[in-house]
């Protein structure tokens, strides 16, 4: 069942703004009504669509009569709402037709229970079949990123380009280049009229008629029809009308996806914050009782906004039901993904596939935890955060995994702890560093290599690329210059930390 809080959050993506009212945001919503009277009684419901209201005040009066918890109305955002009381007043974007908006609200409220259970989108394939019959050609429906959402079964005027597009779930680059050369994508952004693209045998294209699927001012997707010649006026009109129906379906699908993402995100955050009921939450998320890993991701692009992170979250949660092997959450500036993976290589492959699905301008950093059970995922999230910070600081080519990079992470912790206090300005290591700076020696590098090779002069010499007698001479000079006490295990350990802090 959808709550008022979740309804307002999801609808915020469609230009809806909360205007006032002190309604309990955890109120469960079960019905949607219009302002009407039947047999002398006002139809009551939880959500009132105030179609035809001339002001927010009038809409609020209708809502009280209908005993609604929330009223959605058009109006001036600057209009004051002082007496809303326990009715939430929400103002709708005037560019969105009421018919489109009603479809979204009905879908969210009436299908809220099914959506939380993992119900999929409206059947766009059936719509593609129906539209194909109306326009007399094979149909492909794409989203606003040109990903294939559905296609008709009919093959009338189908060509190799259509087959390649369906198999790849998007148009091949050479086909997109043809469309771009004809200004198709610019046209889709600016116009609701169908446009014809002539055939291009070099890319297996016999011809296309394409139209935008738009809700208000927002482009939601596009409808492509295989047609070797421009459509007749009647079929052009059928295509334009069909695009409006597609837009309504896409709105409902996106609303369902947004709601699904919110439900999933809340459960993943709960799973990675507390082990108390972790097994139950993991079961609700459909995660298998096998080793799991937490992947922490951050992203940025050249816009300087959070759009890159939102794209990562959208791609990580793409799909309906429980077909995905992962579950994700967006928390502050990080996306956390719980992935069923015993081997770190599986997690890295998942990250690479995610990056490949994003625009080239988006840069992604990631950190991977060690394998964990459901009750250990709170600790795994911390491990993923540390690995993410490690990649951000070192620019490693591959995302580090905790079980492979624990030594580097431990040194980072020790360095951080050492730097949090006053770093000593005197002492053996600092004296060697100063001597190297003034005399051109390499005693610090020699001491570090000697400690790494556990005092073996032969291996130390090989690491430094010098003769072993050179190592023995340098260590003798180091002992003369400072009081290192190299025979003391505690002193050797402290020097290792001090050298790490110098890096």
Report a brief summary of the structure.
48% of the residues lie in helices and 17% in strands. The chain is α+β, with helices and mostly antiparallel strands and 503 residues long.
Q: Care to describe what's here?
A:
With 503 residues, the protein is of the alpha+beta class. It has 4 domains: 4-110, 3-Layer(aba) Sandwich (Udp-n-acetylmuramoylalanyl-d-glutamate--2,6- Diaminopimelate Ligase, Chain: A, domain 1); 124-253, GAF domain (Beta-Lactamase); 278-404, Reverse transcriptase/Diguanylate cyclase domain (Alpha-Beta Plaits); 428-502, Orthogonal Bundle (Arc Repressor Mutant, subunit A), CATH 1.10.10.2840. It has helices at 4-11, 56-65, 98-110, 112-116, 124-135, 160-168, 173-181, 184-190, 233-273, 278-284, 307-316, 344-356, 377-394, 402-420, 428-439, 443-452, 457-464, 468-481, 489-502; strands at 17-20, 32-33, 37-38, 41-42, 47-49, 70-73, 88-91, 139-143, 148-151, 195-200, 205-215, 218-226, 292-300, 326-331, 334-340, 363-368. It has a 5-stranded mixed sheet, with helices on both faces. A hairpin with a 2-residue loop joins strand 14 (326-331) and strand 15 (334-340). It is elongated. The chain starts with a helix and ends with a helix. Residues 113-122 have low confidence and may be disordered.
């Amino acid at each position: 069942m959808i709550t008022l809080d979740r309804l307002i959050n999801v609808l915020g993506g469609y230009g809806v703004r909360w205007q006032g009212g002190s309604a309990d945001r955890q109120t469960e919503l079960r019905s949607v009504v219009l302002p009407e009277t039947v047999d002398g009684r006002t139809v009551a419901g939880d959500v009132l669509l105030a179609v035809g209201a001339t002001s927010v005040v009038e809409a609020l009066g209708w809502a009280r009569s209908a005993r609604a918890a929330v009223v959605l109305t058009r109006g001036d955002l600057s209009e004051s709402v002082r007496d809303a009381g326990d009715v939430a007043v929400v103002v709708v974007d005037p560019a969105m037709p009421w018919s489109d908006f009603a479809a979204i609200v009905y879908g969210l409220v009436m299908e809220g229970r099914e959506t939380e259970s993992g119900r999929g989108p409206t059947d766009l394939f059936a719509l593609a079949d129906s539209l194909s019959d109306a326009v007399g050609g094979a149909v492909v429906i794409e989203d606003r990123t040109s990903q294939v959402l559905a296609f008709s079964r009919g093959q009338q005027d189908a060509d190799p380009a259509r087959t390649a597009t369906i198999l790849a779930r998007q148009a091949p680059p050479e086909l997109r280049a043809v469309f771009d050369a004809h200004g198709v994508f610019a046209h889709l952004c600016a116009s609701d009229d169908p446009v014809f693209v002539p055939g291009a045998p070099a890319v297996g294209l016999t011809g296309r008629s394409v139209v935008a699927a738009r809700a208000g001012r927002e482009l939601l997707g596009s409808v492509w029809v295989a047609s070797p010649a421009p459509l007749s006026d009647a079929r052009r009109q059928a295509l334009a009308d069909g695009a409006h129906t597609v837009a309504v379906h896409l709105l409902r699908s996106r609303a369902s996806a947004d709601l699904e993402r919110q439900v999933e995100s809340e459960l993943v955050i709960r799973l990675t914050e507390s082990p108390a009921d972790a097994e139950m939450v993991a079961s609700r998320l459909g995660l298998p009782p096998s080793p799991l890993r937490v992947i922490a991701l951050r992203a940025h692009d050249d816009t300087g906004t959070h759009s890159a992170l939102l794209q990562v979250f959208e791609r990580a949660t793409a799909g309906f039901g429980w077909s995905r092997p992962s579950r994700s959450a967006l928390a502050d500036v990080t996306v956390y993904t719980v992935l069923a993976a015993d081997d770190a290589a599986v997690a890295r492959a998942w990250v690479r596939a995610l990056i490949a699905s994003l625009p080239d301008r988006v840069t992604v950093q990631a950190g991977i935890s060690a394998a964990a059970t459901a009750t250990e995922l709170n600790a795994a999230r911390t491990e993923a955060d540390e690995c993410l910070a490690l990649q951000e600081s070192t620019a490693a080519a591959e995302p580090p995994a905790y079980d492979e990079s624990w030594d580097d992470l431990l040194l980072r912790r020790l360095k951080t702890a050492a730097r949090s206090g006053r770093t000593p300005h005197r002492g053996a290591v600092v004296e060697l560093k100063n001597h190297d700076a003034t005399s051109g020696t390499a005693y610090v590098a020699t001491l570090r290599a000697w400690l790494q090779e556990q005092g073996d002069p032969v291996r130390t010499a090989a690491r430094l690329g010098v003769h072993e007698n050179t190592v023995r001479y340098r260590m003798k000079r180091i002992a003369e210059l400072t009081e290192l006490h190299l025979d003391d295990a505690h002193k050797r350990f402290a020097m290792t930390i001090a050298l790490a802090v110098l890096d």
